């Protein structure tokens, strides 16, 4: 029976890996927006008319970082009224569907190009909460990550979004301390309380060692949180508020399984590391009593070793917090564009599916944390997903359709679509002809945030990319 079980497991693993290697790559959607056909492009902005001190301009330096020589340019201006009486965002924004694009010449030395004043007139006005005077206190959390020094350095900008100035601590176990002081100093400049520890252990052993290190460095923390270097928390305030539902004086093992039922059947029902593994201090104390035995389970991955130790040496079971996401989806645009509650955590943002989470978070300074990934309807087909994309569906999308998440990723092996409904449902089919402007960069500019969304032409198409800039500005600070 044991050999039979091993054979079945081997077959399932091979089939699953084959499905990943051969996952579906959708064809490019049509490049030209469908509003009135191929929208005419206006002339190049006259460089003689550009003035660096004009109140209405294109920040060409920002667009030049994307490597374009020319770009078709359109713009939305959204004014934000910050108020104590904020009760939620409206579902629709009264914005004009872009129909014409000004051609920008970007291979010139000018840093700003003047625009006609009408470009900078507010297209829409929204209300948003007044931002807090200080960042949330997250001293109740101590985070641990097992990674390389290079990847740690690459993650600091993202870590700063949720950790900087919050009194939380991050302990990083790395395989090398070459130039570690540079990374340490950079983190300190960003307001991140980071401790770097060199370890000769392999990555998975270091991962499990974090259970002891977090306990030994608990100080005033109630929770030890093990993360991957590509775990991202869009809102530390939301995370702290969510943890208030759990009594930290009791044993808690909190996290999220993979969204893919077939994958979970292979690797176990457990807290997957990318979503964040939240361990209360009483549970860490229990686990530490069996540390040596659990550490010796070399056949298990880091997060699975943690799960096995919890399950075999305590009576604590996984509490699935549905705001945490492992995001084992590859093509995850449908997840980001779902318009659902802002996730507490997301994963794989710099590997399986590249997402500019740092750029996504910039707009929070203007319209609040929960403005990130908020979905507004622009028309029957057009939608703005704040900090991620501007999309045009190939058909009118009803409010009923919007209840379902667009499944932009492949069906789960064996379980097909139902392999994801248990975690993400309801789902709707992918719109293969959807047009998508993706966020490429964003920057804060005084009381403004500038977002650059780009529609890339298909490979071989000589037309310039299309840039739709959104300028968010605080109206009651002008």
From TrEMBL:
It comes from Aspergillus wentii DTO 134E9. The keyword Disulfide bond does not apply. Keywords: Signal. PANTHER family: FRINGE-RELATED. Residues 1-21 form the signal peptide. It comes from the Eukaryota. This is Glycosyltransferase family 31 protein.
């Amino acid at each position: 029976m044991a050999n039979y079980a091993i054979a079945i497991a081997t077959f399932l693993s091979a089939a699953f890996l084959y499905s990943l290697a051969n996952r579906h790559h959708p064809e490019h959607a049509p490049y030209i927006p469908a509003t009135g056909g191929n929208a005419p492009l206006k002339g190049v902005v006259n460089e003689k008319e550009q003035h660096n001190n004009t109140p209405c301009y294109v920040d060409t330096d920002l667009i030049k970082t994307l490597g374009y020589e020319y770009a078709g340019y359109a713009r939305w201006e959204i004014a934000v009224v910050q108020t104590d009486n904020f009760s939620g965002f409206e579902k629709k924004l009264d914005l004009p569907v872009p129909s014409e694009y000004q051609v920008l010449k970007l291979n010139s030395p000018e840093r700003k190009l003047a625009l006609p004043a009408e470009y900078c007139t507010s297209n829409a006005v929204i209300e948003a909460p007044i931002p807090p005077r200080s960042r949330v206190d997250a001293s109740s959390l101590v985070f641990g990550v097992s990674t390389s020094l290079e990847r740690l350095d690459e993650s600091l900008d993202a870590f700063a979004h949720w950790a900087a100035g919050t009194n939380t601590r991050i302990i990083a176990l790395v395989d090398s301390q070459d130039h570690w002081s540079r990374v340490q100093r950079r983190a300190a400049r960003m307001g991140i309380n980071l401790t770097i520890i060199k370890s000769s252990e392999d990555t998975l052993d270091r991962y499990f060692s974090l259970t002891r290190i977090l306990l030994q460095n608990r100080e005033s923390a109630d929770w030890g949180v093990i993360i991957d270097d590509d775990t991202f928390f869009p809102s530390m305030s939301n995370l702290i508020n969510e943890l208030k539902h759990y009594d930290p004086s009791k044993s808690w093992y909190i996290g999220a399984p993979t969204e893919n039922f077939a994958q979970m059947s292979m690797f176990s029902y457990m807290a997957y590391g990318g979503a964040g593994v939240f361990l209360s201090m009483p549970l860490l104390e229990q686990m530490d009593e069996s540390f040596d035995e659990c550490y010796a389970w070399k056949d298990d991955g880091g997060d699975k070793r943690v799960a096995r130790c919890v399950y075999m040496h305590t009576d604590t079971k996984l509490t699935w917090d549905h705001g945490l996401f492992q995001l084992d989806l590859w093509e995850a645009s449908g997840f980001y564009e779902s318009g659902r509650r802002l996730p507490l955590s997301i994963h794989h943002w710099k590997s399986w599916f590249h997402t500019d989470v740092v750029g996504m978070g910039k707009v929070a300074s203007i319209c609040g944390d929960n403005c990130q990934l908020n979905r507004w309807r622009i028309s029957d087909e057009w939608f703005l997903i704040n900090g991620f994309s501007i999309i045009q569906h190939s058909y009118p999308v009803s409010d009923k359709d919007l209840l379902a998440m667009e499944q932009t990723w492949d069906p789960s092996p064996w379980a097909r679509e139902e392999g994801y409904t248990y975690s993400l449902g309801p789902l709707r089919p992918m719109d293969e002809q959807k047009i998508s402007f993706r966020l490429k960069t964003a920057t804060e500019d005084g009381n403004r945030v500038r977002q650059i969304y780009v529609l890339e032409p298909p490979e071989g198409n000589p037309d310039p990319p299309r840039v739709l800039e959104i300028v968010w500005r605080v109206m009651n600070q002008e």
